Amino acid sequence: MSKLIKSRFSSQQTKSAAIVPIMKMEDPLFTSEVMEETEQIKHAKRESEQIIRSAKAEEESIFQSIEMAKQNWELEKMTLEEQARESGYQEGLTYGRQDGYQQFSQAIYQANQLVELSRADYLEKVESAEETVVALAVKMAEKIIASSLNEKPDQMNEIVKQLLKEVKDYDEIKIFVHPDRYEYVRSQKDELKQLLTNEQELFLYMDEGLSPFDCFVETSFGRIDASVDTQLKQLEKQLLERLGEAESS
Question: Transmembrane segments in this chain: where (predicted)?
Fold first, then answer.
């Protein structure tokens, strides 16, 4: 039978070439793999797109964070600069106040120094003036006493009497006067002796070195000067000493 079929078929091929349509043959397994790969590609594409979107979003977030940080830094920078200016202003103000206070204190110190110098100069002039006033007063007193003794010679006798009271306890008393006053004092000798005891001796001498109204006595104890000039010098000395004590107190 196979020979028969073979023969028949060979015969047909010889007679005419029959056209047999090519039937598309689909492999179910192949199709499934293709579909699966396609789906994987789509999934990968979606994932990649999602990653890209996430990356862009992250990038945008980072950029915004950077911008925010930049703005914050600008604000902080402005705040720090303002604080620095304020601090510098306060430091300058404080320095200015301190400098002004020091200048003010220096001015007060200099003013006080000037006042103290003026006061010292004033006291020096006053002291000098006081000495001058005392010297003038003594000179005036000397002239007044001299004038008074010229007008009233008996006052010379009062000076000698006062002097004898100081030496009345001594046995021998010597009185020295100016030659111009000798006669007058001698004329008053008896009156003067009344101030002494009978045992005491009174002697009268002239001394041309004395001023007309000066006199002194000598005893065994020593010499006592009763001249007007000496008394005025003692008065001047005491006045100057008291002025010195008043200034130092």
Answer: none
How far is the C-alpha of 163 from the C-alpha of 208, rounded, in Å? Answer: 20
What pTM does this model have? 0.42
Contacts by residues 193-200 (CB-CB < 8 Å, ≥ 24 positions apart) = 195/161, 195/164, 195/165, 195/168, 196/164, 196/168, 197/168, 199/171, 200/168, 200/170, 200/171, 200/172, 200/173
pLDDT tens for the chain, residues 1 to 249: 444 445 454 444 445 555 655 555 567 777 788 888 888 888 888 888 888 888 889 889 988 988 998 899 999 989 998 888 888 888 888 888 888 888 888 888 988 889 899 888 887 877 777 777 777 777 777 777 777 777 777 777 788 888 888 887 888 999 998 898 889 888 988 888 888 887 888 899 999 988 887 888 898 888 888 777 777 787 778 877 877 776 666
> Torsion over CA of 15, 17, 18 and 22, rounded to 10 degrees?
160
Alpha carbon distance 165, 224 (integer Å): 11
- DSSP reduced 3-state for 64: helix
